[in-house]
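Example for tutorial group B:
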């Protein structure tokens, strides 16, 4: 895997956007995999700027988001549908019907997961997937111990993830205990993956994922087996890496 170490969060976001913009210009009907959380916000801001100022065109793009909380409606401010609309989709020229996010309110959550897999397949698979990483090494909501061939599924969130995400909710007790998530097998089928991480809280997870053994105990370490992955990390996030990487 390729690792790029940046001096700041802003530089990290710019590097991610360079890859996204290049791929979108090469393939206007690109299928993008998108992520939520604090980390990708800078990337989305810069994509919006490129759309508004330089005409980056999303009109033919399709998107699939990694995950969604179970039980939150799309209008709940902490739902990932709400997050994506506010932080990206409402500001660019993407067709809303081409933006796919798992429904946390589906009556049959397993059927919702199966239909999501079918929608990815009928779109031709994901060309470029953006990922964050949890402090425990999770990717999407695939917590440590998730099978590497897992498909989109319903998960019980790890206590560490509930703690990490409590900052977004008024009260920690409001953090949903379950979510729907693309599986590790689903993510590994994306043709290209860009993982972003910033801050010292991610340093152990980054070091384990890049330089540790490939193990289901550190879900992001499985990305070592993917042919086209770039980790873009700031200095703090890279602080426990031992190797020499591009800066
Ligand atoms: P964060 O979340 O970007 O809010 O740190 C990343 C993740 O948990 O995957």
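The residue assignment follows.
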């Amino acid at each position: 895997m390729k690792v790029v170490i940046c001096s700041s969060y802003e530089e990290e976001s710019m590097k991610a956007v360079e890859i996204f913009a290049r791929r979108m210009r090469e393939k206007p009907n690109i299928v993008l995999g998108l992520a939520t959380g604090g980390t990708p916000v800078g990337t989305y801001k810069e994509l919006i700027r490129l759309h508004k100022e330089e005409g980056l065109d999303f009109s033919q793009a399709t998107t699939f988001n990694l995950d969604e909380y179970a039980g939150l409606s799309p209008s709940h401010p902490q739902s990932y549908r709400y997050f994506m609309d506010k932080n990206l989709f409402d500001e660019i020229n993407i067709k809303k019907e081409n933006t796919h996010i798992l429904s946390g309110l589906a009556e049959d959550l397993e059927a919702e997961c199966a239909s999501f897999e079918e929608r990815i397949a009928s779109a031709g698979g994901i060309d470029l997937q953006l990922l964050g990483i949890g402090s425990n090494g999770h990717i999407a909501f695939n917590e440590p111990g998730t099978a590497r061939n897992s498909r989109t599924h319903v998960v019980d969130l790890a206590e560490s993830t509930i703690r990490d995400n409590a900052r977004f909710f008024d009260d920690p007790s409001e953090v949903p205990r379950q979510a729907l998530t693309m599986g590790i097998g689903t993510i590994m089928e994306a043709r290209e993956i860009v993982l972003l991480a910033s801050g010292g809280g991610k340093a152990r997870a980054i070091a384990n994922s890049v330089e540790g053994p490939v193990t289901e105990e550190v879900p992001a370490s499985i990305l070592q087996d993917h042919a086209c992955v770039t980790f873009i990390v700031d200095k703090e996030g890279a602080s426990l890496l031992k190797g020499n990487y591009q800066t």
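Residues 37-39, 132-134 surround 2-phosphoglycolic acid (CB under 6 Å). Compare this with the pattern of hydrophobic and polar residues in the output above.
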